[in-house]
């Protein structure tokens, strides 16, 4: 504890040089709330200073009902930081509260009834001198009041929030024992307001109803029994005419790896955490991936068992992304024809007749989905309105007609019984080769030797001297996840864990690093604890990544 009070210090340094703000560093107490000034900006135009607020359990006075268990603690932290953000809106404070998803983030933690907030503050200046009067108002009045107000919530509302999240997490946890990869509850509302607004459609939305044949019932800790559509393991096809809601359903499933706030419409739409959305991404780099399941002899003669490129095509990028996802531990793949490479998805009988196998290096996904499931226990959900060849290989076919889902597997079987003359091009997938990065090819340090991790929204991770393009990763939804991925990569690289295989490094991450305290060490930035799969996806898009060893 610093001597004297924060108010006294602010009075003393008022109108002094801006650099005097350095003296705020350290821990203060205001109205029984702890305020640790962790980083002070050097000038008024630098990124905001960082503060960690600690509210002791006696002061926060939270009912243990609200935070007991991991799901509830994360949910309550999210609920509280949303309230704090609402109370500190505009002006000097930066509070990372998040959107429709409830994510474990550094801006707020609840541990044993103690509440921590991490926030940014733009320390006020008049020119290059300290505006101590405003600083006093912000730090000594507005901040503690906002913290008190955030904690002064209606119990019922907070309870609904944490119960919603606990139910959704429990539902996700139950998927494996039910043999399901995803669950979409009856009366869920899937459509969003717009492509850039993730809130639920305000009016005219048709709520979801499960087809009778896929209906499942699940018992949840708070809500009791819920009914909805269970999507079993295996190969699921979503068909239907254009604009009938196929992509909307798939997108809700892809976001089902996250819990959603009450009122979102997708509170009980869940997918297993090891679900990877895959898309074509021409131009991406690929580093030593064994893409032989998809790509045979190339005209360049390059070895597709050890394939690298700085500039992948749509099809090879998608092939590499599939292999990399499985390597990193994905057990469900989601593919939408809207964002897939046609020539990797299908090759019909007529094209087979015209272009012989000897001059077509690609084996289409349609022939690999079943082997992928048989050999690697990887399930697939595919949106495909454009090719009937998938009817041959699907375990079940779901049709969307004006947003209403029905199961049409029987009809699909009957149609598939008439041969098209198409030849099956593969009967096995083959092993996945595991890759070990070259130490030093992953470096979070900039030229000056200092760690540099920053996000440019959800599009780009700036890591050391590199820019990692994340735009093709649809499951990265929050800029703070991008920072979290950077912190995870930096810690894995520094600990030496990245010299092992990528899969082993991810196992190490899950065991040692995947929580707020571990990732926060040495950083004051806002971040979200990222998913292992997204760390791997970012690493695979790092242009400096070099692989030293490939093993089966
Ligand atoms: P598809 O992939 O079949 O072409 P989309 O999923 O892109 O169709 O949906 C087309 C449009 O319909 C989108 O604007 C979407 O927001 C809207 N939509 C999707 N599902 C629903 C629904 N259940 N109720 C109302 N509108 C919906
Ligand atoms: Mg679509």
Description:
There is one protein chain. By secondary structure, the chain is an alpha+beta fold. The chain folds into three domains: 6-153; 275-416, no CATH class; 434-551, no CATH class. The protein is 30% helix and 23% strand. It has 15 helices and 29 strands. Strands 1, 2, 3, 4, 6 and 7 form a six-stranded antiparallel beta sheet that branches. Strands 18-21-22-15-23-24 form a six-stranded mixed beta sheet, sandwiched between helices. A hairpin with a 2-residue loop joins β23 and β24. α1 runs antiparallel to α4 and α3 (70-87) packs across α5 (155-178). The longest helix is centred in the N-terminal third of the chain and has 24 residues, at 155-178. The chain is globular. The termini are far apart. It binds adenosine-5'-diphosphate and magnesium ion (MG). Magnesium ion (MG) binds at residues 246-247, 338. Adenosine-5'-diphosphate is lined by residues 190-191, 204-206, 240, 242-248, 403.
